[in-house]
Amino acid sequence: MKQTCVDIAEEADLSAIAAMLATLNDLHARQIPSRFRSDVTVADLEGFLRDKLATGAQAVVYRTEGVARAYLLWLVDGRPGDVLRHPRKVATLDQIYVDPICRRRGVARRMIRFFEMQAQLAGCSEWVATHYAFNNASQSLLQGAGAASDFYRLAKRL
Fold this sequence. Notes:
Blueprint: E1 4-8, H1 14-31, H2 42-54, E2 58-64, E3 67-79, E4 88-98, H3 107-121, E5 126-129, H4 136-144
């Protein structure tokens, strides 16, 4: 019987998460080379993750038989109010990746549900995520989790 769980990432998970981030970054670097670096190492990415976690980001991990096979990185964004907008606390889903051997099994949805519970405990009233236009799978995943478009950002290279 396989043991699986979704939980808060631990120090021991960071190397595996960094390796998954390398795969995710490679996809982005191939699609948008003007924006994403292709010369980063797994060690660089592990340092990047440590810095993110040290400054408030949180990581959710999916493990099967003790091995991290998927992760979700998120952070709390406190947005002060102004003359136009109410103050609010928003959870930003920054990254999500599932190892190909675990895809199409509901892993990402389970991580998103766990993230939503953690975000509510942190006092967030909503969560937001962005995805690149080439990534239809991310769009489908996020919409399937109940997210709806509420903002469009256009970009033009100069």
